[in-house]
């Protein structure tokens, strides 16, 4: 059974990567209206989301190891 913390971490990672892919494919490399400052900020914050999700996944794994007494 996957822990709630690990699941939350993976959801954050997947959403952040999906937004980065959308931004690069549809907004930055595509034609259309000029990019706004808000969109660039969301793009930068998506990398923070990846870091936060990774921290969640790693902390969940560490908690699982500690509960099993492997640490």
Gyration radius (Cα, Å) is: 16 Å
> For the report, how would you describe the main beta sheet?
none
The tally of helices reads 2
Order of helices and strands: HH
Task: Describe the secondary structure blueprint for this structure.
Elements: H1 4-28, H2 37-68
Helix pairs in contact: 1-2
Which structural traits does this protein have?
71 residues; mainly alpha; 2 helices
Overview of the molecule:
The chain is an all-alpha fold. The chain has one domain (4-68). Helices cover 80% and strands 0% of the residues. It contains two helices and no strands. It has helices spanning 4-28, 37-68. The model has no long low-confidence stretch (mean pLDDT 93).
